[in-house]
Amino acid sequence: MMFIDPHAHMISRTTDDYEAMAAAGVVALIEPAFWLGQPRTYVGSYIDYLSHIVGFERFRAGQFGIRHYCTIGLNSKEANNQELAEGVMEILPRFALKEAVVAIGEIGYDEQTELEDKYFRLQLDLAKELALPVMIHTPHRDKKRGTSRSMDVCLEHGLDPAMVVVDHNNEETVREVLDRGFWAAFSIYPSTKMGNARMVEILRQYGAERIIVDSACDWGISDPLGVPKTARLALDSGVPEEHVRLACYQNALSAYGQSGQIKEDDWLNPPAIDQRTLYEGNSVLRGGREARIEEPGAQRGMDKLIIE
Amino acid sequence: MGTPTDLLHEWLSRRVSEQSLEWLDGQLGKLRDASGDRDLVITLGMIPRRLGKDDLNLSAGDLAAADAARPGWDPSLWTIETAARVLALLAFSGNEAAFLDAYKELCRSADVAEAIALYAGLPLYPAPEKLVDQAGEGLRGNVRAVFEAVAHRNPYPREQFDENRWNQMVLKALFIGSTLDPIQGLDDRANPVLARIMCDYAHERWAAGRQITPEIWRCVGPFAEGDMIADLKRVAGSSDPQERSAAALALTASGAPEAKAILVGLTAESAALEAGTLRWKDVVPA
C-alpha cells in the first residue's frame, strides 16, 4: 500500500526517519511551513527557511525515494510579531509559486489575537488570488471555538470549503468540519493530538470521505510513521481497505492536487528531468556513499556495531 | 548568425503551443521595460506551469548554432523551462545594475529547477566577471544538479574562476558523486596544485578502504613526478580495467621517463591508446 504523509516537518527530522518512512510505504509527503520551536526574529531567517523547504529538503527527501512537497505561509505564533509578519507577507508571493508548493499553510489561530486574525485573513486572500488550497492549523487551546472561527472566516473571504484542509481535528471538532464541507485532517501525534486507536474509531464512525490522516512529526516527540501505523491498525481492525486508501493516500492527493503541483505520476512515472535533479532514490549521498533504504531502525541501537 | 536570445526563442517556438508562446512573448515585452523585479519573479514562477518542463531535445545543428553564437555554450541537456527562464533573464538584463541585484536575490530564493536555470545561463549574461561570487555560491550546496549547472557543459568556470575556485570545484565534483569529463577546460586548466590535492585525496580514500573514481588521475597525469608516479603505478596494477585505462591515459600525459616504463607493462591499454580508441570519457563511472 502506498501512503502520503500530508503534514510532516522534515527539516526537524533525521535521515533515519526518511529511511523508515520509505520502507513503510510513504511515497510522498507535504512539509508545511511552521514555527521552529522558537520564534524567528528577522524576515531573513524566514526567507532562508522557506528556501530550505522548497530547495534542499525537497532534494534530501528525493534521495530516499520520497517525493517532497510543501506549503508556504506565516504561522499563527509568528503572526504576533508585527514587524516580522509584515516582512513575511511581502515575500510570500515570491515563494508561493515555487515548484511543488501545494497550498498556503499552515495558517490559522494560536491565541486568537487580533494580529493572528489579520494575517490569517490576508493569507486567505492570497490563496484565493493564486488559486491555491489552504492548510489550516487549528489551535491547541480553545480548539473547538478556534476551529469554528477558522471556517467562518474562510467562508467570509469567499473560499470554497473544498479548497480548505482543516488540520489537527479531534472527536470534538470533526462533525462540524465535515458538515460544512471542509476536508478534515487528523494528526497522529502522541500525547497532545490524536492517537491512532482513536483515529480508527473515527474512521469507523464517519467513513473516510474527506478525512485525511497525517503525522505532523516535528521537533517534538512524534512519530514519522504515524500514517502507515494508523493504516495497519485500521486494516487489522477491519476498516475497509478502500477507506484506509482514501484517508492515508487518496484524499490528500485530491485535496492538494487542486494546486496542480502534486500528481500521482510524480512517483509512479517520474519525468526524466526530476530523476536527474530531485528524485534519485539511489543517489550518492554526501561522502559518496550509496543511499540504501534500510530496515526501519537499522541505524538505531547498539546491535549494528560496524560503521563503514 | 543568431544571437543566443534569437536561438532560445526559435527553439521554444518549435516546442510549445502558440498560446504558450504568446504568453511568453507578452512577459518578455514587460521584462524589457521593467523597472522592478516583480514581473521577473512572477514570470520565472509561471514558466513551468505555462510551458512545461520537457527536455528541449536540441539537434546537432542547434547545438552547433549555440556554439557559434557563444563559444562553449552547450544547452544539450536544457529543458524547456530552463531555456524560457534564461530567455526571461536575458530580456531583463538590459539594465546591468538592476540585473545584477535581481540575479543575486533570485539565487537566494530559488527552488532547485530555478537555480539550475540561473546557473546554466551564466555564459549568456552581461558583466560575467561580476557574477563570479554568485557562481561560487552555486557550487557550495550539496544538490548535485545545481552544482552541475555551474560545473558541467558550461564555459563560465574556465573563463572566470581563479585557480583556487577552479580546483575546489573539480575536487568537490568527486565529493558529491559527480563526474569530471563534462567540465569544460579540464585539461587546459590542469595545474600542479590540483594534481597534488588529487593525490592526497586518493591516499585518504585508500586509507579508508573506499572506492575512488578513475577520472581523478586525469588531473594528475600532466604533473606526475616522484611519489605521484608511484600512485599511478599502483593504479596501473589494478584488477579493474577502468583503473588501468585511467592509469594509461594519465601516464601518457606525463613526460616523466618512469611513466613510459610503467606504460610498457600496460600492453592492451597502450594498444588502445595507439589506435585512438581509449579516451578519458571511457573511464567515467556510469
Q: Concise description?
A:
Chain A: InterPro entries: Metal_Hydrolase, TatD-like, UCP005295. Chain A is of the alpha/beta class and 308 residues long.
Structural notes for this entry:
The complex is a heterodimer of chains A (308) and B (286). In chain A, 42% of the residues lie in helices and 15% in strands. By secondary structure, chain A is α/β, with parallel strands linked by helices. In chain A, the strands form 2 sheets. An 8-stranded parallel sheet of chain A has the order 1-2-3-4-5-6-7-8. Chain A has a two-stranded antiparallel sheet with strand order 9-10. Chain A is globular, with a radius of gyration of 19 Å. Residues 282-294 of chain A have low confidence and may be disordered. Chain B contains 16 helices and no strands. Chain B is mostly helical. The radius of gyration of chain B is 22 Å and the shape is elongated. Chain B starts with a helix and ends in an 11-residue tail after the last helix.
Q: How are the secondary structure elements laid out?
A:
The complex is a heterodimer of chains A (308) and B (286).
Chain A: E1 3-5, H1 15-23, E2 26-32, H2 43-54, H3 56-62, E3 67-72, H4 82-96, E4 101-108, H5 114-130, E5 134-137, H6 143-156, E6 164-167, H7 174-179, E7 183-187, H8 196-206, E8 211-214, H9 226-236, H10 241-256, H11 265-268, H12 272-277, E9 284-285, E10 289-290
Parallel strand pairs in A: 1-2, 2-3, 3-4, 4-5, 5-6, 6-7, 7-8
Antiparallel strand pairs in A: 9-10
Helix pairs in contact in A: 2-4, 4-5, 8-9, 9-10
Chain B: H1 4-15, H2 18-32, H3 38-51, H4 60-69, H5 80-92, H6 96-108, H7 112-120, H8 132-138, H9 144-151, H10 156-160, H11 163-175, H12 192-208, H13 227-236, H14 241-253, H15 257-265, H16 267-275
